[in-house]
Design goal:
Number of domains: 3
Structural class: alpha/beta
Protein name: ABC transporter ATP-binding protein
Radius of gyration: 24 Å
Oligomer: single chain
Pfam families: ABC_tran, BCA_ABC_TP_C
CATH topology of the largest domain: Rossmann fold
Keywords: ATP-binding, Nucleotide-binding, Transport
Number of helices: 14
CATH architecture of the largest domain: 3-Layer(aba) Sandwich
Bound molecules: adenosine-5'-triphosphate
Organism: Goekera deserti
GO molecular function: ATP binding; ATP hydrolysis activity
Number of strands: 10
Largest sheet: 6 strands, mixed
Helix content: 25-40%
Mean pLDDT: 80
Strand content: 15-25%
CATH superfamily of the largest domain: P-loop containing nucleotide triphosphate hydrolases
Low-confidence stretches: 1-30, 345-353
């Protein structure tokens, strides 16, 4: 579903035309110690993330109080096309960050780069201060950054439980030395199976554990992907369009699961086109267009941002046509039909008109 950039919230800046670089300065009562006090009070993670982000200016590249992922100068080109060009981006620890943007903005490519599924032309990025460049996906996952895919990658010919076990951090065959000690890996396998079954219960997939993943519905596959991602005890979970193709009944359940990840202390970055979902669960929203980050801020700031509205309108292919556009399309169609009839035969012979 294409994102709807129409304003829904109200901007503290009071300026609906505020562009990406015209973010409000921190308010007079901006309080640098607020996040630390919130931690000390033992506030719920959702509240902590919101407190940490509350007084930040809505500025592209704005430093976060406690960044878990930091991206610097990352570019990726395909031939002449610059798919990603991100100067500086920080993701706040413990928050849910929504990554939005029109089709082709570079969101999935950025996900691919950050998780080792693709390599950039330039740039560096880090997780918890540790550079992640040049690492393979399984190494990135082992460090604590996992992802799901827009089109789910559940292996159809494996059972649900087998799919889960593939997500486990310590596979029995992973280490040659462990494989030489059957008791170690049997114990590990048992622990992994128990963990998988726990997660399947939590995601209400336990009754399907012996079914082939190929028999699951689209929504159930999304749940399976999320559950499998949790098998490796990640710190950062990156979800690529987790709600796409999911029926409304499962949407609420998926949204609940995403919020639960934050409650358990994980940082979530998710790509989503449905702005209702973005508004509902994001603590912070990053907007990309044509490979660049064009805006950042809390959800209510985004639909007010002129650059964001322009980016979406520029790419909004399914907006209703204006009457001028309708006339133009009709004229082009008529011209095409006439051209088609011209070379040979009568209209009825060629087109049935
Ligand atoms: N492997 C590739 N080869 C060539 N071009 C690519 C490749 N992968 C992505 N692109 C191009 O890079 C640009 C960014 O694509 P990307 O899939 O990252 O966008 P997106 O924001 O995730 O889009 P969507 O919301 O439609 O999934 C697009 O123009 C796309 O066609």
């Amino acid at each position: 579903m294409p994102a709807d950039p129409t304003p829904h919230g109200s901007s503290p800046a009071g300026d609906p035309a505020a562009g990406a670089t015209r973010a409000p300065a921190p308010g007079p009562d901006a309080d640098a110690d607020a996040p630390a006090r919130a931690w000390a009070r033992g506030d719920a993670p959702a509240r902590l993330a919101q407190t940490a982000l509350a007084d930040l200016p809505w500025q592209v590249g704005v430093p976060k109080p406690d960044p878990v992922v930091v991206v610097d100068g990352v570019t990726r080109t395909f031939g002449g096309l610059t798919a990603v060009s991100v100067d500086h981006l920080e993701i706040q620890r413990g928050g849910i960050t929504g990554l939005i943007g029109p089709n082709g903005a570079g969101k999935t490519t950025l996900f691919n780069l950050l998780t080792g599924f693709d390599q950039p032309n330039t740039g560096t990025w880090s997780f918890d201060g540790r550079p992640l460049g040049k690492l393979a996906p399984h190494q990135v996952a082992r460090l604590g950054v996992v992802r799901t895919f827009q089109l789910t990658k559940a292996l159809s010919r494996l059972t649900v439980l087998q799919n889960m076990l593939l997500g486990a951090k310590d596979q029995s065959g992973e280490s040659f030395f462990k494989a030489l000690l059957p008791t170690t890996w049997r114990g590990q396998e048992k622990a992994n199976t128990e963990k998988a079954l726990d997660l399947l219960r939590r995601f209400k997939l336990d009754a399907k554990k012996d079914d082939f993943a190929g028999t699951l519905s689209g929504g159930q596959r999304k749940l399976l992907e999320m559950a499998r991602a949790l098998m490796s005890d990640p710190k950062v979970v990156m979800l690529d369009e987790p709600m796409a193709g999911v029926n409304p009944a499962l949407t609420q359940s998926l949204l609940g699961h995403v919020k639960d990840l934050r409650e358990e202390g994980m940082s979530v970055i998710f790509v989503e086109h449905d702005m209702d979902v973005v508004r509902d669960i994001s603590d912070w929203v990053v907007v990309m267009a044509a490979g660049r980050v064009i805006a950042e801020g809390p959800p209510e700031s985004i639909s007010q941002n002129k650059d964001v509205v322009d980016a979406y309108l520029g790419a909004h292919h399914d907006a209703p046509l204006t009457s001028e556009e309708e006339d133009r399309v009709l004229a082009e169609s008529r011209a095409a039909i006439i051209a088609e009839r011209a070379p040979a035969g009568t209209p009825s012979e060629r087109t049935g008109l």
